[in-house]
C-alpha cells in the first residue's frame, strides 16, 4: 500500500530580513501527513520546486491556490499534441465545454515539448476537469522558493565557477566557436557583466529558434553572441505593463549563468578576496536565459513548465536548473513540474542538470531524483576564507568568514563568553546563543562576544546584529557545520569556529581574569587540504523515490564560489564600497552549473551523444579521492559514501576522454514507468516516442528498476542467500575498433560480487556488449548498506560504476 504525503503551504505576507540587506521571502511548509512508501514514482516526486539560492533565505509565494478559491492549476496532457488549430484554443474549448469559462482563464499554454495548460480554477472545477479524456493529471501550481539549507545561518545564493585555480587544459582549450547552447532557468541575468561579453565569438548558431524579449527593459537590456536569448515569465496577464524583464534583480541567475558558461575575466575578486581569473565551465557556449523566478511571485511551477516548453522549441542543448524540492516532500511525477519538463526535454535530446538540494546532511534528503535528471551534490574546493582570532599571548585560532574587520591586529579587546553576559532573569541557553533580549548590554559593550549557535532559533546575522546593537565590537560564533562555509558580514568583525576550536578559547577565557582577543580581516588561503569534502548542506541519498536508483549522481564545487553578480547591489557592498561585480556564495545551486558547463563541453566535443551518454561519461570518469590522495570525506571528516557524492567528484579532463558509455534508452525509461506502477495507457499519453509493440514487462516491480541501464548500480531488499543478478550494457565510443576491456571489482567485506564475462572484446566502434553482476552474501540481512565499484579498463580508459547494496526495502526510504 502506498501512503501519500500531503503538505499545506501557509501563505504569509512577504517579509524582509536584514541578512546582508537582501530580500528574503519566506513560505512555511506544514506537513499534514507523512510516511510515503515509495512503491512507485507516482507517490515519490517533489511538489515544491525551489531555487537553491541563499542558504538561510528563499522566495515564498503568497499566491498559492488554496482550497476552493480560484487559484492557478496546471493541467498536464502528456506528449505534445498534434492536429489542426491553436493548442491554446483547444484547451480553451475544453475549459469552456466543462466550465463555461472565458479564454482569459488560461494563464499558460504548453505546446512544444508537451501538452497542457495552466488556468485559474476552483478545486471543484479542477477535480471535474481531471476526469476528462486526455488529461493525465491536474494539480495546484506549486509554490517555488529560493532554496535554503537546514541551517538558519545566512549564506548567499550559490553557484559554481572555475576560479583562481590552474585552468583545465581540456575545458579551456574548447573552441570559442562552440555552438552548444545552455539554457538557464533561474532569476534572470545581468547582461552587462563582463562575464557575458561576446568578444571573438562567431555568429549565433543558425539552429537557434529563440528570442530576446527584453520586456520593459528594452532600452538597457540586450542580447549578444554570448547571451543569445532571454525570456521572462509571470502569472499575471499584463506582465509588460508591470515592468518585467529578463534582468536579474536577485543575483542568483547571473552567478549561475557565469559559472556554467562565463567568459574568462582576469582580475576578478570579491573586494580583493579570491582574486584570479573567473571562467565558466564552457566559456565558448552560448547562454539562453529563462527568468522563471521573481521577488514578487517566487518561482511557480507553471512558469518553469513554460520555460521547459519554450526551451525545447528554442533549440537548447543543456538545461541548468538550480531548482528542486524540499526534502521529505514527495508527490507524483505527474504533479512535479521539474520532473515532467525534464522528461520531455530529455526526450528531445536535451541534458537536464539539477541541484540535489540543500537539506543535508540528513539521510534521504536528496531531491530531483528522477533517473532522467542529472542530480548534483556540492563539495568544497581547495580555497578557504580565513578570518583568524588572536588571543592574548598571540595564540592564533583559525576561523572562517568573510569580513573586512578594522580592529587592531593586536589582542586588546576584552573577550567574554555570552553565557557570562546574560541578564539576571534571562534563560542561560538563550544567552549563550546570543539572544538579544537575554544579554546585558553593560557586559557586552566594547567586547568581543563568543556565541553558541545550537538553538536553531536565530541566524548568525541575528547574533551579529544583537551584539552590535549592545555595543559589542566583534562576534565569534561556534558552529561545526557552517565552519567550512564562508558567509559575508561586511565590515563587522565576525568569524565562525568549530567546537574543537571553541574549547581552546573557553579554556583561555576561564584561565584569565581579563581575557582579550581580536578578530583579523579575511584572507584567501589556497591549496587548502583536504579538498574536496562534501558540504554539510549538500542533500544526501538514498533516494526517497526508490533505493534502486543511486542519487545524487555526481558532486561538483559548491562552496565559496566566486562568479558574476548583478551590478547594482548596494546592499551587498561593505560600507564605503561600490557594488561588487563578483560575489562569493555557496550551495548546490553553485555545483549544478559546474556540471552544466562540463556537459556543454562534452556535447560540443561529441555532438551525437545522448543526454544519458553524457551523464554516463561524467559519472564513470569521476574521482573518489581528495588532494591528500585519500578517500573523499564529509565536512565533519567522516568517510563519504556514494549517498553523499554519487559517482564522485567530476573530472574536467577525464570526462572529455570517454571509452565506454552506458546509454539509458527510451525503453529503459518506459520500463521504469512500468516498474513504478504506471499502466500502459498512461505511459502512451506521457511519452512522445514509444515502440508500437511496447508492453510493460510481466514481472514489473520496483526491484526491477535496478536493471535499467544506469551508470551506477543500486540494489535493495537484498537477500544474501538468494543473491541478485543485475545486467548492464556498454557501448564502445573511443573510436578504436578492436579493444579488450577487463573488469576489476572493489567489493566490501561480506559481499561477494561476480561479473560475467570478465572481459569485453570489442571489434568496432559503436558496438554494444552486455555483462551481468551477481551479488551474494553469507550475511542476510546485511547489517548496513554497503558500497563498492566495478571498473572496466583497456589500459587507456577506465570506466568505473559505483554500486550500493541494501537489505532495506526498496519500497520506502
UniProtKB/TrEMBL annotation:
Keywords: Hydrolase, Protease. This is CO(2)-response secreted protease. It comes from Citrus sinensis (Sweet orange).
Amino acid at each position: 500500500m502506498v501512503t501519500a504525503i500531503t503538505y499545506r503551504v501557509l501563505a504569509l505576507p512577504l517579509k524582509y530580513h536584514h541578512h546582508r540587506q537582501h530580500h528574503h521571502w519566506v513560505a512555511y511548509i506544514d506537513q499534514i501527513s507523512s510516511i510515503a512508501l515509495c512503491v512507485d514514482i507516482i507517490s515519490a516526486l517533489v511538489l515544491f520546486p525551489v531555487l537553491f539560492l541563499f542558504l538561510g533565505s528563499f522566495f515564498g509565494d503568497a499566491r498559492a491556490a488554496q482550497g476552493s478559491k480560484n487559484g492557478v492549476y496546471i493541467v498536464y496532457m502528456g506528449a505534445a499534441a498534434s492536429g489542426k488549430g491553436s493548442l491554446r484554443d483547444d484547451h480553451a474549448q475544453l475549459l469552456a465545454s466543462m466550465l463555461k469559462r472565458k479564454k482569459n482563464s488560461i494563464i499558460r499554454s504548453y505546446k512544444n515539448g508537451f501538452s497542457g495548460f495552466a488556468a485559474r480554477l476552483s478545486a471543484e472545477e479542477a477535480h471535474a476537469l481531471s476526469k476528462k479524456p486526455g488529461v493525465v493529471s491536474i494539480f495546484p501550481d506549486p509554490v517555488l522558493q529560493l532554496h535554503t539549507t537546514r541551517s538558519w545561518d545566512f549564506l548567499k545564493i550559490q553557484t559554481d565557477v572555475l576560479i583562481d585555480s590552474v585552468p583545465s587544459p581540456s575545458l579551456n582549450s574548447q573552441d570559442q566557436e562552440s555552438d552548444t547552447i545552455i539554457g538557464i532557468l533561474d532569476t534572470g541575468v545581468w547582461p552587462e557583466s563582463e562575464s557575458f561579453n561576446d568578444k571573438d565569438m562567431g555568429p549565433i548558431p543558425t539552429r537557434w529558434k529563440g528570442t530576446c524579449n527584453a520586456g520593459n527593459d528594452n532600452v538597457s537590456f540586450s542580447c549578444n553572441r554570448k547571451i543569445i536569448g532571454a525570456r521572462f515569465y509571470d502569472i499575471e496577464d499584463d506582465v509588460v505593463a508591470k515592468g518585467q524583464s529578463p534582468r536579474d534583480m536577485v543575483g542568483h541567475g547571473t552567478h549561475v549563468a557565469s559559472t556554467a558558461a562565463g567568459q574568462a575575466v582576469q582580475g576578478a575578486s570579491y573586494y580583493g578576496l579570491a582574486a584570479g581569473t573567473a571562467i565558466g565551465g564552457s566559456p565558448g557556449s552560448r547562454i539562453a536565459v529563462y527568468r522563471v523566478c521573481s521577488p514578487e511571485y517566487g518561482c511557480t511551477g507553471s512558469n518553469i513548465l513554460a520555460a521547459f516548453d519554450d526551451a525545447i522549441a528554442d533549440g537548447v542543448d543543456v538545461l541548468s536548473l538550480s531548482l528542486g524540492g524540499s526534502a521529505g516532500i514527495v508527490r507524483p511525477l505527474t504533479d512535479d513540474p521539474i520532473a515532467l519538463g525534464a522528461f520531455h526535454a530529455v526526450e528531445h535530446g536535451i541534458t537536464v542538470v539539477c541541484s540535489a538540494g540543500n537539506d543535508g546532511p540528513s539521510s534521504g534528503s536528496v531531491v530531483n531524483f528522477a533517473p532522467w535528471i542529472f542530480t548534483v551534490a556540492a563539495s568544497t574546493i581547495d580555497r578557504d576564507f580565513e578570518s583568524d582570532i588572536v588571543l592574548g599571548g598571540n595564540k592564533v585560532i583559525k576561523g572562517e568568514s568573510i569580513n573586512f574587520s578594522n580592529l587592531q591586529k593586536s589582542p586588546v579587546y576584552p573577550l567574554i563568553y555570552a553565557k557570562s553576559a546574560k541578564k539576571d532573569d534571562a534563560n542561560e541557553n538563550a544567552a549563550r546563543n546570543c539572544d538579544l533580549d537575554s544579554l546585558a548590554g553593560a557586559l557586552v559593550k566594547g567586547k568581543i562576544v563568543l556565541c553558541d549557535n545550537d538553538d536553531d532559533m536565530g541566524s548568525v546575522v541575528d547574533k551579529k546584529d544583537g551584539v552590535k546593537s549592545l555595543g559589542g565590537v566583534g562576534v565569534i560564533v561556534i558552529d561545526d557545520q557552517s565552519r567550512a562555509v564562508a558567509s559575508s558580514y561586511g565590515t563587522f568583525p565576525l568569524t565562525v569556529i568549530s567546537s574543537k576550536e571553541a574549547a581552546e578559547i573557553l579554556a583561555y577565557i576561564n584561565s584569565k581574569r581579563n581575557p582579550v582577543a581580536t578578530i583579523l580581516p579575511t584572507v584567501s588561503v589556497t591549496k587548502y587540504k583536504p579538498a574536496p569534502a562534501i558540504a554539510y548542506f549538500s542533500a544526501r541519498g538514498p533516494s526517497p523515490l526508490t533505493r534502486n536508483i543511486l542519487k545524487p549522481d555526481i558532486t561538483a564545487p559548491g562552496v565559496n564560489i566566486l562568479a558574476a553578480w548583478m551590478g547594482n547591489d548596494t546592499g551587498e557592498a561593505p560600507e564605503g564600497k561600490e557594488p561588487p561585480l563578483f560575489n562569493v556564495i555557496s550551495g548546490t545551486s553553485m555545483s549544478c552549473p559546474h556540471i552544466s558547463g562540463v556537459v556543454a563541453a562534452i556535447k560540443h566535443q561529441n555532438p551525437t551523444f545522448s543526454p544519458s551518454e553524457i551523464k554516463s561519461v561524467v559519472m564513470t570518469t569521476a574521482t573518489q579521492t581528495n588532494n591528500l590522495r585519500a578517500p573523499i570525506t564529509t565536512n565533519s571528516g567522516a568517510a563519504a559514501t556514494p549517498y553523499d557524492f554519487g559517482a564522485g567528484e567530476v573530472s574536467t579532463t577525464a570526462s572529455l576522454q570517454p571509452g565506454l558509455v552506458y546509454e539509458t534508452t527510451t525503453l529503459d525509461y518506459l520500463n521504469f514507468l512500468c516498474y513504478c506502477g504506471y499502466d500502459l495507457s498512461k505511459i502512451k499519453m506521457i511519452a512522445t516516442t514509444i515502440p508500437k509493440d511496447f508492453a510493460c514487462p510481466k514481472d514489473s516491480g520496483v526491484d526491477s528498476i535496478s536493471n535499467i541501464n544506469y551508470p551506477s548500480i543500486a540494489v535493495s531488499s537484498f537477500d544474501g542467500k538468494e543473491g541478485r543478478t543485475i545486467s548492464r550494457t556498454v557501448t564502445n565510443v573511443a573510436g578504436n575498433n578492436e579493444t579488450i576491456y577487463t573488469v576489476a571489482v572493489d567489493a566490501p567485506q561480506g559481499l561477494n560480487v561476480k561479473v560475467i564475462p570478465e572481459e569485453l572484446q570489442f571489434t568496432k566502434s559503436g558496438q554494444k556488449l552486455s555483462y551481468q553482476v551477481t551479488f551474494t552474501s553469507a550475511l542476510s540481512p546485511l547489517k548496513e548498506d554497503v558500497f563498492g565499484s566495478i571498473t572496466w579498463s583497456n589500459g587507456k580508459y577506465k570506466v568505473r560504476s559505483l554500486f550500493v547494496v541494501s537489505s532495506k526495502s526498496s519500497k520506502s526510504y
